[in-house]
Write a structure and sequence with these properties.
EC 3.1.3.6; Purple Acid Phosphatase, chain A, domain 2; 4-stranded mixed beta sheet; 13 strands; 5-stranded parallel beta sheet; globular; Bifunctional 2',3'-cyclic nucleotide 2'-phosphodiesterase/3'-nucleotidase periplasmic protein; 26% strand; 8 helices; alpha/beta; Calcineurin-like_PHP
Length: 251
């Protein structure tokens, strides 16, 4: 049994029991927009402002600082740069691996989730791209319009070997769940209408987190590719649901 404390670079629900204490660092990348290199192709010049090649060194440093860590990507990965547009125009055949996944696969990601821009090139392209990832993806609120079931794996519970503060190995069940704004149905209507529906963010998380707990997740990492919001009256199907998600304990 594990008492859980965390150094957060993502949002976390923590679980507590009495026997052991584990510190876990959760590292997150987001909005990479296919910027793998530190080069601005629009200006034809090197840049220090972006590029996974630079972030990778920070990830390695952060990992080396602690005993326990996981790495996740929070979406908006396959769109937003000349590389992304080139790959979309070229297309992905069976067996092709998108260059962004050739890069991310070397960094030992634990899990990924989707952003709104993942849908910009259509569902077929998205599925072909995701097939190149050597790590699983979760999304709980995009629903197949035909089957009425989640189009993607809604959540994942992963047994993770960690070392507690006494130096003893423990197995921690970590749950991961992701959601996207329902507004993608308008933003990408041409790609999504009649193919998927998108459920409310807060209600989706309220549904699944207790289920994850019942299946043994000692902590649940909830990844939402949405902006923050002020504590105003909740609206169903809101884009900015962070405040209300933070109030959900999952118990």
């Amino acid at each position: 049994m594990i008492k859980f404390s965390a150094t957060l670079l993502a949002t976390l629900i923590a679980a507590s029991v009495n026997a052991a204490t584990v510190d876990l660092r959760i590292m997150e990348t987001t909005d990479l927009h296919s910027n793998m290199m530190d080069f601005d192709y629009y200006k034809d010049t090197a840049t220090e402002k972006f590029g996974l090649v630079r972030t990778a060194s920070l990830i390695n440093d952060a990992r080396n600082e602690v005993k326990n860590s996981v790495l996740v990507d929070n979406g908006d990965l396959i769109q937003g740069s000349p590389l992304a547009d080139y790959m979309s125009a070229k297309g992905l055949k069976a067996g092709d691996i998108h260059p962004v996944y050739k890069a991310l696969n070397t960094l030992d990601y634990t899990v990924g989730t989707l952003g709104n821009h993942e849908f910009n090139y259509g569902l077929d392209y998205l599925k072909n791209a995701l097939a190149g990832a050597k790590f699983p993806y979760v999304n709980a609120n995009v629903i197949d319009a035909r089957t009425k079931q989640p189009m993607f794996t809604p959540y994942l519970i992963k047994d993770t070997e960690v070392v507690d503060k006494d130096g003893k190995k423990q197995t921690l069940k970590i749950g991961y769940i992701g959601v996207v704004p329902p507004q993608i149905m308008g933003w990408d209507k041409a790609n999504l209408s009649g193919k998927v529906t998108v459920n409310d963010i807060t209600e989706t998380v309220r549904k699944y987190v207790p289920e994850m707990r019942e299946k043994g997740a000692r902590c649940c990492c909830r990844f939402w590719h949405i902006p923050g919001c002020l504590p105003i009256r909740i609206k169903v199907m809101a884009e900015n649901s962070v405040y209300y998600l933070s109030e959900n304990s999952g118990r």
